[in-house]
Design a protein that fits this description.
Elements lengths: L3 E7 L4 E7 L1 H11 L3 H18 L7 E8 L5 E7 L3 E6 L16 H5 L2 E8 L5 E7 L6 H11 L4 E9 L5 E11 L5 H13 L3 H6 L4 H6 L8 E7 L1 E2 L5 H9 L3 H11 L1 E5 L6 E5 H8 L1
Parallel strand pairs: 5-11
Antiparallel strand pairs: 1-2, 1-10, 2-9, 3-4, 3-6, 4-5, 6-7, 8-9, 12-13
Helix pairs in contact: 1-2, 9-10
Length: 288
Amino acid sequence: MKDYLVKAIAYDGKIRCYAAVTTNTVEEARKRQDTWPTASAALGRTLTITVMMGAMLKGDDTITANIMGNGSLGKIVADANAHGEVRGYVSNPHVDFELNEKGKLDVKRAVGEGVLSVVKDLGLKDYFTGQVPIVSGEISEDFTYYFATSEQIPSAVGAGVLVAPDYHILAAGGFILQVMPGANDSIIDELEKNIANMPHISELIEKGYTPEQLLEQIVAKDSLKILESVPVQYKCKCSKARILRAIKGLGEAEIKSMIEKDKGAEATCHFCGEVYHITEDELKELLE
């Protein structure tokens, strides 16, 4: 199945819905970052949620999520746009633990305590920034808390990643449901009950469930109205031109040092692992 997300409404627009299958996207991230299982789960959940949050944007707006915990993973970063393109990295990709008491990958232990911050670049130098403490470390619950606290939108967020014994990604995906004004307690109670009783997201996706079918596990099928479907892919924005601009920003003295000591420079993109080799002549051109 190709990765994609859907935007939908349910209960006459009283619930806003997003769901995504991101298996190939998370596998691409795993290969580029060389993540071990627990790190794959943490990064995969973050990528999945962030790409759905990107779908809430318009035009060329972008969103960046930073999970800065004191666990062994270090920082988790993901950014996405409104077109289903997402990228991300984790500071320490080689993190894995024994399964937790529920028999699941121990993402909470790997993340630790700290803060979750979200920055939306809305164009025209207009930024929205929200920051909340990490309340769970399981990531989905932390984004649920973020929506309620920073954006004052009661939400339910779920994301799952299933990792094979050989470390590749078997399934990944998730959902975001948001309560709009006018939703009564009976609707909210129904959603909470359905979410509590539904199988694990990654297990459903491994069985072939689509984003639409994920939502049908939670909301009444006859009330669900799909508005749009968007392809999802791992896509980095790095380029040699961007690297050169970054080096230019280091200043004349630093560039001269690179020329004299190293006869060039090498830079590796955090997000995709692409290695850029900058020649001595290219550095001299920056000075000119």
